[in-house]
């Protein structure tokens, strides 16, 4: 996980390892065992913060965010906070994939009321076509 974090901040031409291999190993582990809360939170940070990963790898990481236990409120808040317009926000396809992920993990959220509490934020994002 640490190597993906380093690779996400390193330009592609300066990386000493292939990111695809790192992403593939993380995805395989997540699929087999699920991601505990701390690695899940770190991976969500990597995905939602500005990074130098290509969209294919970001999409693969999002599709393989399998939680091993209940998803904490902090992770949900990070995902919702990463939505919208701006340079510091994720690309629109990644935002759409993150919203789909929130829908998929709704039953395993630690506190399902968190989405109700963040409803105003989500409602204000309806003007973004990619998020609708």
Could you explain the architecture of this structure?
The protein has 132 residues and is mostly helical. The chain has one domain (2-127). It has eight helices and no strands. The protein has helices at 2-8, 19-33, 37-48, 55-63, 73-81, 92-104, 114-117, 119-124. The termini are far apart. The model has no long low-confidence stretch (mean pLDDT 91).
H/E element order: HHHHHHHH
Main sheet overview: none
Radius of gyration: 15 Å
- Mean pLDDT over all positions: 91
| Number of helical elements | 8
Write the layout of secondary structure elements.
Blueprint: H1 2-8, H2 19-33, H3 37-48, H4 55-63, H5 73-81, H6 92-104, H7 114-117, H8 119-124
What would a concise description of this structure say?
With 132 residues, this protein is mainly alpha-helical. Helix content is 57%, strand content 0%. The protein has one domain.
Keywords:
single chain; 132 residues; mainly alpha
